[in-house]
């Protein structure tokens, strides 16, 4: 999240030097984590269980 907050809306990173490389690596890592998570949910979604999980039509607080 730090790398996201460090890149303002105009697309310029506030830190010079290696910040761009860090930002690019972070984007790649976050995308890989997200894709792995989606694949895991597709494969094992029905077997996941938690009392904290709720369906989309349930209210957030009861």
Task: Note down, in words, how this protein is organized.
This protein is elongated. 48% of the residues lie in helices and 0% in strands. With 62 residues, the chain is an all-alpha fold. The model has no long low-confidence stretch (mean pLDDT 73). It contains two helices and no strands.
Keywords:
mainly alpha, 48% helix
**Topology as H/E string?**
HH
Rough outline: elongated
Q: Please state roughly what percent of the residues sit in beta strands, choosing from under 5%, 5-15%, 15-25%, 25-35%, 35-45% or over 45%.
A: under 5%
Gap between N and C termini, in Å?
Answer: 30 Å
User: Helix/strand-derived class?
Assistant: mainly alpha
Largest sheet: none
The total count of strands amounts to 0
| Fraction in helix | 40-55%
* Residue runs with pLDDT of under 50 for 5 or more positions: none
What integer value in Å does the Rg equal? 18 Å
Sum this structure up briefly.
The chain is mostly helical and 62 residues long.
Architecture blueprint of SSEs:
Layout: H1 2-5, H2 19-44
């Amino acid at each position: 999240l730090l790398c996201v907050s460090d890149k303002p809306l105009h697309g310029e990173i506030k830190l010079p030097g290696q910040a761009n490389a860090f930002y690019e690596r972070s984007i790649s890592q976050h995308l890989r984590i997200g894709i792995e998570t989606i694949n895991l949910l597709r494969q094992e979604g029905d077997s996941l269980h938690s009392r904290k999980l709720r369906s989309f039509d349930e209210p957030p607080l009861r």
